[in-house]
Write a structure and sequence with these properties.
The chain is an all-alpha fold and about 270 residues long. It has 13 helices and no strands. Helix content is about 80%, strand content about 0%.
């Protein structure tokens, strides 16, 4: 037991005498910078960021400030402190727009937002922020070596927004048998189709929109029925013109037969 206590005490004494611990307690900003850079190079990013944080104000306006500012931001990024990293990379890019590191800083600012993007089932503010930052980056640096990765990450983020939008519409669609709010489902699928014209889910969205419009028309009150039947038929045409070999094609044909049968009543009245 005494031996264990001795080992612990020796460890504490040695750690208190480490270059990092000495730098933390030092008043010499040059020492903090040097040890902080050493910690960064040894991939001890949390220790590096702590030292850099202590000396940032004192180096403002000095020649070393640019390097320190980038290392400070990057140490946060590599410590997975993405909120702080994004903020510091933004500050760097604003303070040093002509720096050779400005391009990388703007990319890493966008990537910090990407890393904060949650699962598609959650609120997507961070996702939209990341897409906006990547688009600004792509526009500013069309020849960047980071361009391929930026485009790949934007595609992934767009996929989250796409899935989120589809799921919202689908929830309206799945609950119409209880709510009878077919218009809400139609509107939600309209929004999805407009926002994501190239989506792999477009076929399914067009079918669910048609199905919602069909049920709305068939179950409609008399004074609104004819207009809704006509509208549902236009949705049918939009679907079959695009997806002639769809797995839903038999269902759509049955809908068309019923729609035309109902519309005959109005042509007879005319």
């Amino acid at each position: 037991m005494n031996r264990l206590i001795y080992i612990v005490l020796v460890g504490l004494v040695l750690s208190s005498c480490s270059p990092y611990q000495k730098a933390i307690n030092s008043e010499d900003i040059a020492v903090k910078f040097k040890v902080g850079e050493d910690m960064y190079n040894k991939e001890k990013y949390m220790k590096a960021s702590r030292l850099f944080e202590q000396i940032m104000p004192q180096y403002r306006g000095k020649p070393q400030a640019e390097k320190l500012s980038f290392l400070h931001a990057d140490s946060y990024f590599k410590s997975k402190e993405y909120y702080l990293a994004g903020y510091q990379f933004d500050r760097f890019a604003a303070a040093y727009p002509k720096s050779e590191k400005a391009e990388e800083a703007e990319f890493l600012s966008a990537k910090s937002s990407y890393m904060l993007s949650p699962l598609y089932t959650k609120e997507q503010h961070a996702t939209k922020d990341a897409i906006e930052k990547f688009q600004l980056f792509i526009n500013a640096y069309p020849e960047s070596p980071f361009l391929e990765e930026a485009n790949k990450l934007v595609h992934e983020l767009d996929g989250k927004l796409e899935q989120k939008s589809f799921d919202i519409a689908y929830q309206y669609y799945k609950t119409v048998e209880y709510t009878r709010d077919y218009n809400a489902a139609i509107k939600a699928f309209d929004n999805f189709i407009f926002e994501f014209p190239g989506s792999k889910l477009r076929e399914t969205a067009l079918f669910y929109r048609l199905d919602s419009a069909y049920n709305l028309a068939i179950n409609s009150v008399e004074r609104k029925k004819e207009d809704r039947l006509v509208k549902a038929k236009t949705y049918y045409l939009s679907f079959v013109n695009k997806y002639t070999n769809s797995e839903y094609i038999d269902d759509t044909k049955n809908m068309l037969e019923n729609l035309e049968e109902e519309l005959k009543k109005y042509s007879t009245k005319s």
